Structure formats: C-alpha cells, structure tokens
Amino acid sequence: MLIEDMYTKVFKALAHPIRIKIVKELVNRELCVCELNENVEFTQSNLSQHLKILKDAGILKSEKDGLKIMYSIKDRRVVDIISIVDDMIKDDIKNMSNKLKSVE
Q: How many domains are contained in the chain?
C-alpha cells in the first residue's frame, strides 16, 4: 500500500458526518455500540458498518468486555485533526458573518 493510499484511507473514513459524530462521542470515553446508538440516528447494523470503517482505518480500536464490545479512539492525534478542522470551520463562519455585517 502506498503512503498516499494510507492518507486516503484515514481521510475517507473521516469523510462522513456520522463517523465524525462517532469520533467526537468517543473523545472522552469508550462506549459500546448500544451507547453510541443512543446518539446516532441509524440502525445498529448501519452504525456497526461505520465503526468497522473507522476501525479498519486505524482510527478506533475495540475491546471485548463481557458481552459488549467497547470502542475507543486508537490514536489521540485524530482528535487533533478534528480540532484543527473545527477551528477552520469556526474561522470560516466568523469571516462569513463579518462579511455579512459589512454589507448591511
């Protein structure tokens, strides 16, 4: 696998609103599918597919805890990536707001 393919795999895994939401849910704690399902508007099987994509990309890890499978962030640097993008989006929103105010 080429290094460019590795980049693409990570960014593709993060390129879905539900997967971003999943990662944000897991920032401060590990959760099982049933707990994640409470905050995501998809079926459990659909959620499991998203979790698999994130896991295959090396973003999440899972651990069996009795009958539950607990998910957590594998590499905390992904939180930094999301935080950087959050800051970029906030800056864009501020700039748009300022442009609208200057037009009025």
A: 1
